[in-house]
Design brief:
Elements: E1 5-16, E2 19-31, E3 36-40, H1 47-54, E4 62-67, E5 70-71, H2 77-87, E6 88-91, H3 103-113, H4 118-131, H5 147-159, E7 165-169, H6 177-194, E8 197-202, H7 205-208, E9 213-218, E10 221-226
Parallel strand pairs: 3-8, 3-9, 6-7, 7-8
Antiparallel strand pairs: 1-2, 1-4, 4-5, 9-10
Helix pairs in contact: 3-4, 3-5, 5-6
Length: 229
């Protein structure tokens, strides 16, 4: 089966004060169906920029980004929005939950945007949240949840529309070590259960080893990989 993600020759530069900074320099990366890949690298290595590119969140990149068989560069803004909505899920370091919505409603919303029938969307949200140990917190708003619980809601939201690929940018970076371990384990379990692929940016070597494969980004170059493809 074809790769869910195939990035070829991806490059991104910025100019500041007359100086050109190469953030990404010819990155090639593939993620297969159901594969969970850790994108390892220190702060400033280009991890977040790479995820922004793959997530179709900003332009200005050179190279090719193929997602679920579609070349992003060939799409107009509406096409990119559709591909992002239908094929991708996102988990960030900070949960970015809507404060006036409860846990279930936060997971229902992206489904409604995709025109899922409200009853089915609620059932899907409750199923995901219960699988993450939040069956007793369905009606709680973010302010009533712990940091780990809020991030679990964010994981459920990312998986709500059954994305082909989940992009996670330091998804446990705002949690203490013990909570981070628990949330990451639940994230990996649920992603595998749902059959999605995932690209997870982290600077944590220990957490990276829990994933199927590790690739390393240093100063915008993908250098080495564990189980390289």
């Amino acid at each position: 089966m074809s790769d869910i993600l195939k990035v070829t020759g991806l490059a991104r530069s910025f100019t500041q004060g007359g100086v050109t900074i190469d953030v990404l320099r010819g990155v090639d990366l593939s993620v297969g169906p159901g594969e969970i890949v850790a994108l390892l690298g220190p702060s400033g290595s280009g991890k977040s920029t790479l995820l922004q590119a793959v997530g179709l969140l900003e332009g200005g990149f050179d190279g090719s980004i193929m997602i679920a068989g579609e070349e992003a560069a060939r799409l107009d803004n509406d096409g990119r929005t559709r591909l992002r909505r239908d094929a991708l899920g996102f988990v960030y370091q900070f949960h970015h939950l809507l404060p006036d919505f409860n846990a279930t409603e936060n997971v229902v919303l992206p489904q409604v945007i995709r025109d899922v029938e409200p009853g089915a969307a609620r059932t899907r949200a409750e199923t995901l949240l219960t699988a993450l140990g939040l069956g007793h917190r369905l009606d709680h708003r973010p302010s009533q949840l712990s940091g780990g619980e809020q991030q679990r809601v964010a994981v459920a939201r990312a998986l709500a529309n059954r994305p082909a690929l989940v992009l996670a940018d330091e998804p446990t970076g705002n949690l203490d070590e013990r909570t981070a371990d628990v949330v990451l384990a639940e994230f990996l379990r649920l992603v595998r259960q749902e059959g999605s692929a995932a690209l997870v940016a982290t600077h944590n070597e220990r957490l990276a080893t829990k994933m199927d494969r590790v690739v390393r980004l240093h100063e915008g170059v993908l250098e080495t990989a564990s189980g390289d493809r």
